[in-house]
Amino acid sequence: MQIQFLGTGAGMPSKERNTSSIAFKLLEERGSIWLFDCGEASQHQILHTSIKPRKIDKIFITHLHGDHIFGLPGFLSSRSFLGGESVLTIYGPAGLKQWIELTLQLSKTHLTYPLEFVEVTEGMVFEDDKFTVRALPLQHVVPCFGYRIEQKPMQGELLIEKALAYGVPKGPLLGRLKAGHSVQLEDGTIVESSDVTSPPQPGFIVAILGDTKYCENSIRLAQNADVVVHEATFDHSTIELAAQYGHATNTEAAQIAKQAQAKNLLLNHISARFLKHDLIPFLEEVKAIFKNSYLTNDFSQYEWRKNELIEIE
Known about the structure:
Helices cover about 25% and strands about 25% of the residues. It is built from ten helices and 17 strands. The strands form three sheets. An eight-stranded mixed sheet has the order 6-5-4-3-2-1-16-17. Helix 9 (about 250-260) runs parallel beside helix 10 (about 280-285). The longest helix has 11 residues, at about 95-105.
């Protein structure tokens, strides 16, 4: 799994930071990419990455503020022009479907692929054999949701020497054992997958939190997460202003990660009020509370591999 930030700014775009959009790359796990929010010019940002729009098959929207959705019409149109044919599912609060359909209708935009909508409410919003996605409402000035993505336990590794010792020949039977199935040998012997594979490995947990004040649902979504993505629009000196606008400070994000006993914290949605030299003490405030914290920039990319978060340069 990889996470790439296409936009890490708050409100209006700046020269340094575009508006909110996160690419959640599941190319190894599912052969696809999920997008969380799609701020203005997200498709422009994608041009500077290796992301192929047709690989994006799900978009999760946290709330309906423009800096999180104004990039949708352009992206949907370009995905069509670029040969996208597979279904694209958009998850988000009430009103999102109406806004997108009206925009496409009035602009006479025809898509070459089916568009599906899921109106998000509290609870499970997606599940398949590999992943679940749950949503909880956060505390912003408009309805806003955070998402918790959990990878289901993965099949253990095939212990090939042990399998050969059981008399399993090289070939397709080994693949069936690795996939979790039992096999029958020519002499009638049944070999169970659990006999020749290591124990199932736990999957990863990622919490992606939309714009929000400090709230209990953020802690619930982030509980024991491997990676928490949390907004940090303000710093500790402007905590009252942050609450007034339904946002969190850098130190509040750190408190959320700490109380949730998460492993890593990625800070995004940074106000343009913070210049480059301001961000050094900004991050130091966070690390004083939660050590494994990272300040993201546009195009920052992180990989979760072997239970470790690694920044890709």
